[in-house]
Amino acid sequence: MDTISLSIQDLLDDDEYGLDLSLISGTAGLDHRVTSSRLQKPGLALTGYTSHLHPDRIQILGNTEISYLNQLDEELLRENARALCRFPISCFIVTKGLVPPPFFLEATGEQGIPVLGTNHQSSTFISLVTKFLEERLLPTTHLHGVLVDVLGVGVLLTGKSGIGKSECALELIIRGHRLVSDDMVFIKKKMPAALVGQPVEQIQYLMEIRGLGIINIKDLYGVSSIREKKIVDLMVELVEWNPNQEYDRLGVDDHTVSILGVELPHLTIPVRPGRNLGAIIEVAARNFLLKGMGYHSARDFQARLLARMESRPLGDEVE
């Protein structure tokens, strides 16, 4: 899993989430790292009570905090501000276009803590920056495989190189399904427990077919054949057929695999000449949808079989 962090400069550079941030002071601290999506309003920490301060979180100063700093004894607040700034705080952000008093900027400057400002109301800004941090700080990983959208189900095809993942995905595209990524899938965890897959930018829309080379799915089949990103719902692992191995023939037991702490339904499909993998994957997606609606065909068959055996034991029909 890749470790993700952001710098304070990344916050200033945002032009997508509308944070509307500007630097008030603390240029030297723009390389401070942010690793948590949670925020804190320091509140009592400004009075000197720092027991519950979380310095790993961005500290938000709104109208209440700035009014407090401007109204009470400056000498006392100066000492409190210096004590607060001794913690390794990544940055302070002041909302509503307010400007903190000079002694506070002096205390942050002594410790190299940047102070940023925004014109947003505190509640609005907290909503915006929380969304920004949650999106940018989510756990991520890269997996070797192919991600396709089959009937709205995000199917991640995995298996060793040359097993036929891309050829299977191509068959699915010809059937009207959609490619998300071939060869390498960038996966991001979306809270609370979803995985979002998307292509690596350099190979977006591209697919490698041995004997043909690199083909562009968007150019060949149009925009309806591709997707920018997709929630991963099901992992299908393609393996070489082994005549000495027993494969699941009933499907009563559901298997899962863990990716970034999220349990994902997992199927193992043996590959050998003559098997139509595209049709099998499509049926797997349809079966996944049925299970989501509460119908499990294998377990239904098992229940009916057991009920029949209980009502009419084996041998009763033999004269």
TrEMBL record:
Reactions catalysed according to its record: [HPr protein]-O-phospho-L-serine + phosphate + H(+) = [HPr protein]-L-serine + diphosphate; [HPr protein]-L-serine + ATP = [HPr protein]-O-phospho-L-serine + ADP + H(+)
Active-site residue numbers: 144, 165, 183, 249
Positions of the HPr kinase/phosphorylase C-terminal domain: 136-304
EC number of the protein: 2.7.11.-, 2.7.4.-
Domain HPr(Ser) kinase/phosphorylase N-terminal, first and last residues per copy: 7-133
Coiled coil: none
Keyword ATP-binding: yes
Region described as Important for the catalytic mechanism of dephosphorylation: spans on this chain: 270-275
Binding locations of ATP: 159-166
Keyword Secreted: no
Region span, Important for the catalytic mechanism of both phosphorylation and dephosphorylation: 207-216
InterPro entries, per database record: HPr(Ser)_kin/Pase (IPR003755), Hpr_kin/Pase_C (IPR011104), Hpr_kin/Pase_Hpr_N (IPR011126), P-loop_NTPase (IPR027417), Ser_kin/Pase_Hpr-like_N_sf (IPR028979)
Cofactor entry: Mg(2+)
Domain description: The Walker A ATP-binding motif also binds Pi and PPi.
Function: Catalyzes the ATP- as well as the pyrophosphate-dependent phosphorylation of a specific serine residue in HPr, a phosphocarrier protein of the phosphoenolpyruvate-dependent sugar phosphotransferase system (PTS). HprK/P also catalyzes the pyrophosphate-producing, inorganic phosphate-dependent dephosphorylation (phosphorolysis) of seryl-phosphorylated HPr (P-Ser-HPr).
PANTHER family, sorted: HPR KINASE_PHOSPHORYLASE (PTHR30305:SF1), PROTEIN YJDM-RELATED (PTHR30305)
Xref: NCBIfam families: hpr-ser
Family, similarity comment: Belongs to the HPrK/P family.
Subunit-level organization: Homohexamer.
Name listed for the protein in its UniProt record: HPr kinase/phosphorylase
